[in-house]
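lol forgot to send this yesterday, sorry. struct tokens for the thing we talked abt
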């Protein structure tokens, strides 16, 4: 069993397509272990994406991620990290495979509808960034 941190980003929440993204998660058989609507501050978005601090897109990305409410989720299942990333598709919606979330719902390489952890270590950090262990333990 693996856990991953998913985010339905502010672009998707604003466009009212969060439900369609949740439907894909459920249809894929990934279990939702925790879920919350959050409005990140700029500082919180910077902390979350700290690995990208030196990248040219960092200021725009953290501005976007703090621009409106987002939905953070913990997904659980066999190989949940890779399965969720395959459901999302490539970072840039323009090059993402057909049928992926980013292809179908992303607007640009920045406003690409969803986030997913990329490895077990980042998943552990990202899940802990939003959800205390006690909340997950009781989510059964
Ligand atoms: P995420 O971490 O959000 O799941 P990812 O792992 O596919 O996405 P990263 O390289 O980690 O891609 O980039 C993090 C996020 O930064 C992207 O999802 C996107 O929103 C934004 N981003 C990445 N590259 C660019 C770029 N060249 N220009 C603008 N924004 C970008
Ligand atoms: Mg990433």
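and heres what i got for the seq, position by position
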């Amino acid at each position: 069993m693996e856990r991953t941190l998913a985010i339905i980003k502010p672009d998707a929440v604003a466009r009212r397509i969060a439900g369609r993204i949740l439907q894909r998660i459920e249809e894929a058989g990934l279990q939702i272990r925790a879920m919350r609507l959050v409005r990140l501050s700029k500082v919180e978005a910077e902390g979350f994406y700290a690995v990208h601090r030196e990248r040219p897109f960092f200021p725009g990305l953290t501005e976007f991620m703090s621009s409106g409410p987002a939905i953070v989720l913990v997904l659980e299942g066999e190989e949940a990290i890779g399965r969720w990333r395959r459901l999302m598709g490539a970072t840039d919606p323009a090059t993402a495979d057909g049928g992926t979330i980013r292809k179908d719902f992303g607007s640009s390489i920045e406003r690409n509808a969803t986030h997913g952890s990329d490895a077990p270590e980042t998943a552990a950090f990202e899940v802990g960034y939003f959800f205390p262990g006690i909340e997950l333990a009781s989510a059964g």
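The chain has a mean pLDDT of 96. anyway ping me if u want another try
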